[in-house]
Amino acid sequence: MSPTDPNEAVNHPAHYGGDTTYEAIKVIEAWGLGFTLGNAVKYICRAGAKGRRIEDLRKAAWYLQHEIERLEAGQVAACDNCGWVGGIAKVVDGKCPANCTLPLRYCAGVS
Predict the structure, then answer these.
(1) Helix residue ranges per DSSP H, 31-89
(2) Fewer CB within 10 Å of terminal CB in the chain, N or C?
C-alpha cells in the first residue's frame, strides 16, 4: 500500500506507528496487555499525533488509573505464563482459565 492509499489510514494509521514492528496494536497484542493497559499504550503511542498531546496523555493516565483501581480492589488475577488477565470470578481452583500449568498470581494481595 502506498502512503496515499485510503486503506492505510484504517489498517495501519501513521499515528499508531504505521505498519512497523512497533505499531501500537502489534505491541499490545504481543505483550497481552488487554483492554485497559492496551488503551493506555495506544494513547501514549499517538500522543500529539492527532491533536493535543496533553489530551492523549490524560486519556492514557485515565486508563492507567482505572487499571490500578481494579488491581487494588482485588478484582483481577493474572497468569505469568500466557499473559491471561481476568476477573477472579473466572478462576477455578487457582488455575488459569487458558489451561496453563503455572498457578495464577492474584493482584492486590488476594490469594
Answers:
(1) 34-46, 53-72
(2) C
Nearest-5° Cα angle at 99, 84 to 22? 35
CA angle 107, 105, 94 (to 5 degrees): 115
Give me Rg for the CA atoms of the chain: 17
Distance CA 48, CA 65 (A): 21
Q: Is 26 or 15 the better-scoring residue by pLDDT? A: 26
- What span, in angstroms and rounded, lies between the C-alpha atoms of 61 and 33? 15
The CB density around residue 34, as the number of other CB atoms within 10 Å, is: 16
Give me the pLDDT at residue 61, please. 97
Q: How do the domains of the chain map onto residue ranges?
A: 1-72, 74-111
Q: Residues 38-42: what's their mean pLDDT?
A: 93
The confidence score (pLDDT) of residue 42 equals: 92
Q: What is the DSSP letter of 104?
A: P
